[in-house]
Design goal:
The complex is a heterodimer. Helices cover 37% and strands 21% of the residues of chain A. Chain A is of the alpha+beta class. Chain A has a four-stranded mixed beta sheet with strand order 2-5-4-3, with helices on both faces. In chain A, strand 3 and strand 4 form a beta hairpin. The longest helix of chain A is centred in the C-terminal third of the chain and has 12 residues. Chain A starts with 5 loop residues before the first helix and ends with a helix. The relative contact order of chain A is 0.13. The model of chain A has no long low-confidence stretch (mean pLDDT 92). By secondary structure, chain B is of the alpha/beta class. Helix content of chain B is 37%, strand content 17%. Chain B is built from nine helices and 13 strands. In chain B, the strands form three sheets. In chain B, strands 1, 4, 5, 6, 9, 10, 12 and 13 form an eight-stranded mixed beta sheet that branches. A two-stranded antiparallel ribbon of chain B has the order 2-3. A two-stranded antiparallel ribbon of chain B has the order 7-8. The longest helix of chain B has 21 residues. Chain B starts with 5 loop residues before the first strand and ends in a 14-residue tail after the last helix. In chain B, 43% of the residues are buried. The C terminus of chain B is likely disordered. The chains are: A alpha+beta, B alpha/beta.
């Protein structure tokens, strides 16, 4: 069941001294700090954030050596399926297998998929940004199919 | 060295029986004193043959332990008490050995002894991550020949392809097998890839889901250039056109329409539009009491009321001498 407060529970757990000891983390007296899920300590290059990754994909695809799966939870409102589908399509790759539904082990539509030469794009139905958390069964099925090189 | 990193039991869970787990630091730059923290869970099916999967959460600046390991695809999920764990019914280590990396330095427990390392971008993040993987293979040489996959979500839409390219190029220029990695593929979920396409995709998604008005959607489409957004942060590298662009009328109009969109969206869970947002228990019960006293209230106002209450309580809490108040653990921001 979706727990909207899960991040708080994780943060509480990760800051327990016994957890940090068990994980061999943060054990020096020089650098003890509170663990946070996301930090503001990192000052990340804004120009890198704004840079397009499409040329990187073009280079990876040209190498011809990698298998690529792009998946997208279709109720994410921050990086939604609409934009992802557009840039994937914009790569201009030949289509191997047209847009179609894929089924989960429970025979429900788990999402939709299109296979290009060198890249597979799959949506995950009713999953938000954190797909493996929100739709774990569907995501696990997608992962397994991809790793097993099943259609 | 690997055995020193082995985790034999987890607090709130007990001894680990069905798979092996390791965690610790791998130095990626000895001169700077930069080390990245990892948690590694072996496949519980066949660690010898199953692939090795690196997982990265995004941000930039978010931990792969909080996201990946503890609440998405790791073997455990936290219980509501924050002190005990339950089993994840679909952990990825049923199918692969999974490596969760806190990257770049200063994320989670990763650190650097050089404070200026906090200023970072995609190139060094990719370089450090490759150095980490090479260091990992020295510590765990039995995984060197396993198929390697890179995976992640959100800003890992940058991390993953950039790291893949770093590895492909590194393999090409390797002087010895020690400098190569057996990269087989990548997986990215809801990835930030191209700001112009992704951000306009978000606007279209909001409009299609009746979350913003026709006028606001059209205003953004007509006025915004999402290739070039936002004010720069102090100390950051300067995009040549941004300072000028921010003063142009279209950019000001874009900003106003984006503000309007944020207002129309309301206090929604933007990461999952049909899911609830986290509202602290204290605020929930006060808001419920208010509803009972005043009768039915529109849902949006209800949430606003709860959020306002929680903000007020947070303020009161921070003013209080008792900093251990439970509200500090339930900050909705």
């Amino acid at each position: 069941k979706y727990d909207p407060c899960v991040d708080n529970e994780v943060e509480t757990y990760m800051n327990l001294p016994e957890v940090q000891k068990a994980l061999h983390a943060n054990q020096t007296v020089i650098l003890p700090w509170r663990w946070t899920d996301c930090t503001e300590k990192v000052q990340y290059s804004r120009s890198d954030v704004l840079a397009s990754m499409l040329p990187v994909y073009e280079e990876l695809l040209a190498s011809g050596s990698l298998r690529i799966l792009v998946f997208s939870g279709d109720v994410d409102g921050i990086l939604p399926v609409v934009g992802t589908r557009r840039w994937v399509s914009g790569l201009g790759l030949p289509i191997k297998s047209a847009w179609r539904p894929w089924l989960s082990p429970t025979r429900q539509v788990g999402g939709h998929v299109i296979e290009y030469e060198g890249l597979i794009f799959a949506s995950v139905r009713n999953a938000g940004h954190m797909v493996p958390y929100v739709q774990p069964e569907r995501m696990f099925h997608l992962l397994t199919s991809f790793l097993n090189e099943e259609s | 060295a690997a055995l020193q990193d082995q985790v034999t039991s987890m607090p709130g869970w007990g001894p680990l029986k069905s798979f092996k787990m390791f965690s610790g630091y791998i130095t990626v730059d000895a001169a700077a004193g930069r080390a990245l923290f990892y948690v590694f869970v072996e496949s519980e099916s066949d660690p010898v043959a199953d692939p090795l999967m690196l997982w990265l959460n995004g941000g930039p600046g978010c931990s792969s332990l909080g996201g990946g390991f503890m609440s998405e695809l790791g073997p455990f999920l936290p219980n509501k008490d924050g002190h005990t764990l339950k089993a994840n019914p679909y952990p990825w280590n049923k199918k692969a050995s999974v490596l969760f990396l806190e990257s770049p330095a200063f994320v989670g427990w990763s650190y650097s002894n050089t404070s200026s390392d906090a200023i970072v971008g995609d190139a060094r993040t990719a370089k450090d991550s490759r150095a980490f993987l090479l260091g990992f293979m020295e510590r765990f040489p039995q995984f060197k020949s396993n198929d390697l996959y890179l995976s992640g979500e959100s800003y890992a839409g940058h991390y993953v392809p950039n790291l893949a390219r770093e590895i492909v190029r590194g393999n090409r220029g390797a002087r010895s097998p020690r400098e190569t990695l057996n990269l087989k593929g990548i997986l990215v979920g809801n990835p930030l890839t191209d700001t112009a396409v992704d951000n306009m995709g978000a606007v279209d998604f909001w409009w299609h889901h009746a979350m913003i008005s026709d006028e606001t959607a059209e205003g953004i489409r007509s006025n915004c250039d999402f290739n070039n957004i936002g004010p720069l942060l102090i100390g950051e590298d300067v995009l040549p056109t941004t300072a000028d662009a921010l003063t142009k009328p279209r950019v000001i109009a874009c900003d106003e329409f984006c503000d309007r969109a944020m207002s129309e969206l309301g206090p929604i869970n933007i990461y999952d539009i049909y899911a609830d947002v986290c509202i602290p228990k204290a605020a929930q019960s006060e808001a419920l009491a208010l509803t009972r006293a005043l009768g039915p209230t529109p849902a949006g106002l209800m949430i606003r009321a709860a959020v306002q209450l929680s903000s007020r309580e947070k303020q009161e809490s921070s003013n209080s001498a008792d900093s251990s108040s439970s509200l500090t653990d339930e900050d909705p921001s």
